[in-house]
């Protein structure tokens, strides 16, 4: 039995349906699907759970990470850690599979080999259409450099502590795990004998990224940081990662505890933000820290603006986007293994950060 893992958050339901329908049409029903919802909004999660429940080969799991940055590695590791020996394929709700796909997966199953597959990309217009696999025109195909969509021997994934959970948002985790599998003695093969999956179009993370504060959690420069981490692991010959543990997610009780905990108001003044990040946060133990950061209205007052223009000493402030990036960099680097919640308010006028230390 091969397990297909679907990490997911807040994607449109029709996209999931196309992917699941293509699996329902497989000639070899030799698989099961584990659908891991990494903290979708409540209404979307309910729709996704209902849809996935219609397929007898699929199970749905909700993880309480709604107010955290997207982390595909954590979602996958949660499921991988629970798997018995055998094989798993890292799928994606964007994928539409050829009817012979799972037959080929079975043929490629090898205890000492991971196999990744060529993908055909659809255009935006063609993605909106429904039809048999062969009816879709291919916009372009991937080559060996696109390292996602991989069939793994589960034993090797467990040997290297799964995916590297440092990687947040988007980029580099697939190439990294291929490199570390090779370091562990696992072969990695590329399959392009026949096109077996199609990728439904969507804007990528870089296209959605904004220079101002956004309700969708974003961190400026994270793609470059991820790439540097990939290079570090590669140059250092790293095999095992996640020294503080892997596959562990905040549970419902911890999530509810954080949501109920009151936040203290914190101004965006530079000295206060710096003190919070560099003294309070690293030195707090056995407690919950919770702050709501808002802009100090004094910085827009005429008196303040005049004094600043005249070069007089006035308080210095960070804008909320700068604070957002500072806090998220600290979370990614030092605190992502802790139970935490991070939100940008709907009106984009405050940031609420809570963490259990």
Keywords:
Galactosyl_T_C; Nucleotide-diphossugar_trans; Spore Coat Polysaccharide Biosynthesis Protein SpsA, Chain A; transferase; Translation Initiation Factor IF3; 20% strand; Glycosyltransferase; 4-stranded mixed sheet; 357 residues
What level of helicity do the residues show?
A: 25-40%
Any idea what the shape is? elongated
Strand residue content: 15-25%
Strand element count: 15
| DSSP helical segment count | 13
Q: Could you tell me the CATH topology label of the largest domain.
A: Spore Coat Polysaccharide Biosynthesis Protein SpsA, Chain A
CATH class of the largest domain: Alpha Beta
Mean pLDDT: 95
Order of helices and strands: EHEHEHEEHEEHEEHHEEHHHEHEHHEE
The secondary-structure class comes to alpha/beta
- The second-level CATH architecture of the largest domain is Alpha-Beta Complex
C-alpha end-to-end distance: 40 Å
Q: Please give the largest β-sheet.
A: 7 strands, mixed
Low-pLDDT regions: none
Radius of gyration: 23 Å
How many structural domains does the protein architecture include? 2
CATH superfamily of the largest domain: Spore Coat Polysaccharide Biosynthesis Protein SpsA, Chain A
| Main sheet strand line-up | 3-2-1-4-9-6-10
